[in-house]
Amino acid sequence: MAEYCIGLMSGTSLDGVDGVLVDFSDAKLHVLARASLPFEPLFRAELLALNSPTHNELHRAALAGNQIAAAYAQVVQQLLEQVASSASDTIKISAIGAHGQTVRHQPHRTSNDAAGVGYTLQLNNPALLAELTGITVVADFRSRDIAAGGQGAPLVPAFHQFVFGQAGTTVSVLNLGGIANVSVLPANPSEPVLGFDCGPGNALMDAWCQQQTGQPFDTGGAWAASGQCLPELLARLRDEPYFNQAPPKSTGRDLFSLTWLQNKLQGFASSRGQDIQATLTELTASACVDCVNSYAKESKLLVVCGGGAFNTELLRRLQAGLPQLQVTTSDQHGLPALDVEAAAFAWLARQAIQRQPGNLPSATGAAGPRVLGAIYPA
Predict the structure, then answer these.
(1) Helix H or strand E encompassing 364
(2) Domains along the chain with CATH numbers
(3) What is the pTM (predicted TM-score) of this model?
């Protein structure tokens, strides 16, 4: 029986919306269509501002959620138009998995948190998206895991196991979005999958590149490759306590923001921009290398996905730090790097409508498996 879901992802990089239409009709997934929609610069700036306390933020966040839903609907329309021109039969979409735009991720209990749990907040309006598309929408995937005592992140390890797991071989999957997260898929399927956030992925590199050059990102890592890593600055950046925390753990722009970076850069005002970019690239690479060496010693393969998979300099540094592993991209394993996260939320939506768990307690630290997401019927 044919079964189709759409996954929509707008990640920490704040560059726009990625969407895929996935066929789950057999044991493997097949991406039938993909589409993307970049955020306009002013809207991207608004989302970035909403990552921190700001004026009239509740009203602005609600409007931003409406705008994200409208952007999601445009991407859904693009996907449906692609398959309509090639499919002999009308494709019925079971659900849309719409992650939303994370602007707060605070999974830990705070001193004034009477409920004893933290929270996560993704801007979205799934009710509006259901109205605009006429398709069932699943959203707010992270909150249930946090309510069960978990981090609410990363949620992709279960999907990574579904797509990239290999019986008899331990595989590590590194997602390089705005934040970097690693999944360790054990050779023995009966052993638990491990997954957690390593630290910054592209977020700091992109922010510095945008500030210094006006470009949204360092294409291929060429600017970083033209510079030299600054050991003293790298040591200061690596002094952040998060890097020494044991998993389960997760992070976001709440911590690794441009403000965090500017505070760390005090005393380095005379440094060349490309040297700081080289140091930020090494920060991402070294944090990921340390995580793999500490928690995935048996891995022989590292599968890289997300936007960072296109950063040649970053991949070079990963391979240099992990000579015992073969560093590849997910494209070489049947799923393009930019499709992986969107496909993960298509899979999570499918899990939700089938009332199947979407989290892995071994990765998030939740009290047990949970069905993730709130369902907005068509």
Answers:
(1) helix 361-364
(2) 4-154+339-376 (3.30.420.40), 159-333 (3.30.420.40)
(3) 0.93
